[in-house]
Amino acid sequence: MKTVYDAAAIAAMDKDFRTQFINHLSGYKSANVIGTVSELGLGGSNLAIFSSVVHLGANPALVGMISRPFAENVSRHTYNNLTSTGYYTINHVATNWVDKAHQTSARYDLEVSEFDAVGLTEEYVNDFPAPFVKESYIKMGVKYLQTVDIELNGTKLIIGEIVLVVVPTGCVSIDGHLDLVGAKTAAVAGLDTYHKGEMLGRFAYAKK
Amino acid sequence: MKTVYDAAAIAAMDKDFRTQFINHLSGYKSANVIGTVSELGLGGSNLAIFSSVVHLGANPALVGMISRPFAENVSRHTYNNLTSTGYYTINHVATNWVDKAHQTSARYDLEVSEFDAVGLTEEYVNDFPAPFVKESYIKMGVKYLQTVDIELNGTKLIIGEIVLVVVPTGCVSIDGHLDLVGAKTAAVAGLDTYHKGEMLGRFAYAKK
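^ Those are the sequences you sent over. The predicted structure of the assembly is below.
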């Protein structure tokens, strides 16, 4: 049996119901935690979960993520840090610590490092100036490029260039495919529900 | 063992390797097919897979998707249709027809309906003016609102408002959670690899 919700039904939904419901409609979302440090070391490191990281292009290697309006959450710490220092890390949430990743969404004060608060480990790779998550298997260092304001609802599309990538050697195939199942990458549905993946199949480049 | 790729290593990658590799780095991606019709019935219906549909906000219910530069693929058919008619559908790809969804990425001529070419069924719901995919379990009708040009690489962020939702009745919980596993929603990794999900856990709103 199917249920159809029209625009009036969507508008009439209880606020919390609608937030959860609409948030599921895009399908599975990427689960990443964003690592930053504050400028001049004030406030130390920061780690925040984002479920909106999206591939924008391979050459240059551009990645985007959506930041909610700052009045609604604590993502301003992440935004202030990455725009002032110019760098951030994107770390795949792994299936064995989805609880810790979710806990980074709590409203910790600026002085608190979410790494310490949730029990994840800061890791520095080469001379990249933002902290990676040691417990993450696929992670990248990103150079901040641009913010695109989405005036329709006050969100921001934050765009950066991937300049450093760390992956398990055995997860990279000869043609550039990454084994997300092997790397324990998690996916998220809605606001709070985490999943692991199981591969169904891989298909050739489609021709008519 | 880990492999670290710096900016020089990324730049030196074979083009096809890099396209596949970078495309995996955002993590699991949503798998949706976009249904449109051409204005005045010229060219009929169109169906195209997008792996970049992203939640933008719940109230108003906004959803975005990234369109590659038109020179590179056939997404201009979708874009021309949704901007000229003002409406499109977003249909979750289900795990039992990921092959058909992938095949919509072939460069069919404008006159060819991908519904017919790949073997999926057009479905019209209420008086919504774009075709849904009958075989999809979670799907939405979207009113086109705005295109945001991303000048860094020529992509476009297409934004619309969700005005109609069709879901299996049994997949909606009392608090708005949708059971994506029960609805057979698929996820995609990179350009061509499809996955099903298995739920790990759901967590309460995080407090410090």
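Chain B touches chain A through 111 residues (CB under 8 Å). Chain B has a mean pLDDT of 94.

Shout if you want it in another format.
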